[in-house]
Specification:
The protein contains seven helices and five strands. With about 230 residues, it is α/β, with parallel strands linked by helices. The protein has a five-stranded parallel β-sheet, with helices on both faces. Helix 1 links the parallel strand 1 and strand 2. Helix 1 packs across helix 6 and helix 6 crosses helix 7. The N and C termini lie far apart (about 40 Å).
Amino acid sequence: MTASSTDPAQPVAIALLSGGLDSATATALAIETGHRVIALSLDYGQRHRRELQAAATVADALGIVEHHTLPVNLAAWGGSALTDASIAVPTGGVDNGVIPSTYVPGRNTVFIALGLSLAEARGARTLVLGVNAVDYSGYPDCRPDYLAAFQTLADLATKAGREGHGPRLWAPLVTWSKTEIVRQALRLGVPIDATWSCYSGGEAPCGVCDSCRIRDAALIEAGRPDLASSPRG
């Protein structure tokens, strides 16, 4: 699998690559469908900045030659457990219908807008998103109706969109279970051990935050307990 072809006839896709399992799998799917992928990672002041190192490793493993990491300091105003150390990262799950404290105000809206800018500048027809609405988040900006609304905005807000060939938002994992994401990652050869999903800061996964627990449960169900994290002592 490679994303580094310079064939001018090959379609180009921009992938928002966080360094997590979901975005890595969506990126690998884009490569499998024949796209030359340009990766975009965002340094938004997240406590788990370790994911940016993971993004670089994943990009290299997937053969992505052009990988941008852009600083966008959403931590400047906090409002999320992912950007404000005074807010606890959830470890016991969240109630149905309750948006968790790990929601970052406006994050995906900002990220997708930046991805669309890069896509239009590079002539990319696809913007690849690893968002998932099933397993955990309940985030308002990871839902199909949000993506559909943003597609309408993208078609109206870009020169390419007004000319009828604007980038398409592609979120192949949006309705998948985490276990299905793991299975597809294994099939595609995604370096799962190099990805980073933990919401806590540090150099090793905490194993107890909600993101770690859901990832580990999926890995175990998919038959790969060897890739699950271990809590720090």
